[in-house]
Amino acid sequence: MSSVNRLPGLPDSTIVAKGYAHPERLVSTAWLDAHRANPALRLLECNEDVLLYDVEHIPGAQKLDWHVDLNDQVERDYIERAGFEALLRRLGIDDSTTVVFYGDKNNWWATYAFWVFRLYGFDNMVVLDGGRAKWIAEDRETTTERPRYAASTYVARARDDLSIRAFLEDTTAHMLAARPLVDVRSPQEYTGETLHMPDYPQEGTLRGGHIPGARSMPWARAAEGDGTFKGAAALRALYEGELGLAPTDSVVTYCRIGERSSHTWFVLTYLLGFANVRNYDGSWTEWGNVVRAPIRKGEQP
Questions:
Q1: Is this model's pTM higher than 0.90 or not?
Q2: Boundaries of domain holding 59
Q3: Is 46 a known active-site residue?
Q4: Which domain CATH number covers 243?
Q5: 172 and 128 in one domain?
Q6: pLDDT at residue 228, rounded to an integer
């Protein structure tokens, strides 16, 4: 599942100690500080607040704007193969470079970018445990300078919309088969009390609630207070203990537009080693607007 062990010091011993199924998918702030000058690395900062990068960022990091870099600007979908290829060429990335994703808010959008890259079969990438907040809290070096890298000659693979992505019809079939669905939104969104997270505009759907049979597990419960991921034992207590999931289950995660659920997809797939997890990126903005789509309100049974 991994092609990132070509760099020195991977897997990171700090991450290995946390007991993950695939510790090579995370690096600590200390590891990155020691290796960020390695010419084989490309750092990509992807934030919910796209203005943060210009305030300060890790030296060598490039900005990845999820609004325009990853999403088609007309259809609700991701960029096509040619667009992904052009993006990675512009960023100086090819299969020989290891991409380090990081961002704000517990790496919420960093894992989303990671997931989109995986749609195209790009595999040589890791996530910075703790992200932007932990790096800054530790008073590590930041800059406002934008790095420049020579363009690559990367050739993109065809996008795989089957292995890790679920569409409306897939999610419907999953629901009808009573397979595990994990709703990672806030409890208020799950019950139907609100249509978005607290303190955000209540927009995007006509109906609130959750997909019948879905269990609630807010995405941020997987993170510690400093933004790092909880250790494997604590994560198993959440997903296997509280939700009753097993690593052999076929699982679909969803949220409002697929970004928070990509964080849970990352946790289940790489930190706990689940073999079959798909992210329903249409999520509630699709399901809550589809005519006659079944909806349930209230607490989970």
A1: yes
A2: 13-137
A3: no
A4: 3.40.250.10
A5: no
A6: 98
